[in-house]
Design goal:
Elements: H1 5-25, E1 34-36, E2 41-43, E3 49-52, H2 56-60, E4 63-69, E5 73-75, E6 83-85, E7 88-94, H3 110-117, H4 122-130, H5 136-139, E8 145-147, E9 155-167, E10 170-182, E11 187-195, H6 201-215, E12 219-220, H7 240-251, E13 258-261, E14 267-271, H8 276-296, E15 307-312, H9 315-322, E16 330-333, E17 338-342, H10 347-369, H11 377-388, E18 391-393, E19 396-398, H12 410-419, H13 425-430, H14 433-437, H15 445-461, H16 478-510, H17 515-526, H18 534-548, H19 554-568
Parallel strand pairs: 14-15, 15-17
Antiparallel strand pairs: 1-2, 2-12, 3-4, 4-7, 5-6, 7-11, 8-9, 9-10, 10-11, 13-14, 16-17, 18-19
Helix pairs in contact: 8-10, 10-11, 11-15, 12-15, 16-17, 16-18
Amino acid sequence: MVYSPRLFKLVLCLIVACCLASDLSAQKSGRSKREFPAYGFSFRPLKDWKDIPQSPDDIAAGRIGQFSAEDTVRLPTKDGFGLNVAPSLVVLRDTPQEAVTEEAAGGLRGRAGREQAAEKTVHDYIISVYGGSLRKDEFKLLEAEVSNPKITKTDAKREEITSYLVSGGQGYDTRFDVFTIQLPDAKIIFIWQYPAFPDSAKKLKKWSSAARTSMKTFKYDASKVEDFSAGDAPDSDDDYSAILSFHQQEVDQTPGWRLLETPSKNYLIKTNCEDRKSINLAIKRLEASRKLFEEDFPPAEPITNVSVVRICETNEEFQMFSGMGNGVAGYFSPSSEELVLYFGENSNGLDLTLAVMTHEGFHQYCHFLFNRAAAHRWYDEGHGDYYGAFKLVGSKLKPNEDMKGGLARIPEIKRMIANGDVAPLSDHLRYTHPEWQGQGPSGVSCYAQSFTIIYFLREGTRGRSRTVKYFKKEYKDIIPNYIASLHAGYVKAYADYVEEQEESLKTALEADADEEIIDNLKERISKPWLYLDSEEKRTISYKAIDDSWGKIDESEFEKNWLNYIDNEL
């Protein structure tokens, strides 16, 4: 091979260009205007930055936007492996707070009362977003560099703060570049976060300039404010048209996202995925899952709640929306009542998504079946895995022995049996959520044990031939008795609690109590599941165990169940 200095120089330039590509492309000004319809302002994010939707809970709390650089910045680390950092932007909206009176502050006096009424600082805003990842002792010592960015006709200021942020177990110097813009009805706070580049003032200047350039495109027009507030979200069992209208407005806040209805109107799908085939398959499996759940666990009264399912196009977007790391394929949030997941990148990834969707869909169904009451983990997670393994044949789901790939549970329970790591059945059934999750020896052991308990019960109830010599007829009543006791317990507890609160409301109205007290009592009456005493919940759940498992010989069941797994699966 003939050496060419010119060729060598060209190759070297290409290598350097590739190394710098992500850093440079992330700093280019975007051409697309990002509208915030509910608030009447817009700006242009940097080019190729991902626009991440915010949940209604986040929006109601003031977090109205989130963006992340599609390309990461590579930072050197002491271990030599380096750290990939994705610069980000969080947009907050802070409405004016009325002065806190001594009475409203709970009788606080002196300094404590004044602090509660004090206006938030830029440090407060940063901590509200990144608090768990900051070295707070270092953060508090830093002073902000304040400048007037002159980016808008409204009042605005810019504050730049350098701190230390921990990501993926490693820390790095980071710059918080905060623009606070005062609008007539609220403050809008843009928190840019990018590496501080302590060894490169040039790189830091480029990022600082990029943030400023983006902020100079900020525009506000009061006439364009649309009537939408996440705080006005209807309950999931309200009128369907009202629910549909709200969620349509909610997805309209983030470009690229859309709302889809399902034939049954039991579900609403929020997604930014353009793969129509995958979306249609997901809807088909959702509908089949709901039919199966209703057949196996018919509700005492028709469930009118509309279930919301958010499907992100990629795992990266799922992680940004959820704040969860790798290893989580989907989840159901009881607080937002949304089921959140993402589509995998190939056929195996799609299979994983559909299995997780049915698993989490069962949690969502039970959330409404039990009127937002929680069941024990062996029941909830065991059934989630059991239904997640089902195969879609035509328009129906058919039983299957186990899930695929990394979700398979039988290999794990086989190892547990061989190594003597199976938790005693009596303990496993009665574990609290943390105890169940941490039973070990691995992170999936709890799932494997619960799945096989449910699989044995369901297959035995169906009369499968492999269960005949292990399954006793009284085992068929375990799940129905558990459900009936749990349901009845919560129905009575809710009724008693509501009656109690209605008496308090009557007394408060007669005494012409403050509006805040009246509103609080009304909420307690409409949402008793949020306020029911934890000890009462514990009593209900343990009575359900006594009314179901307490009617059989648990030791005998444990022996039969383990022999069934060992010999038949």
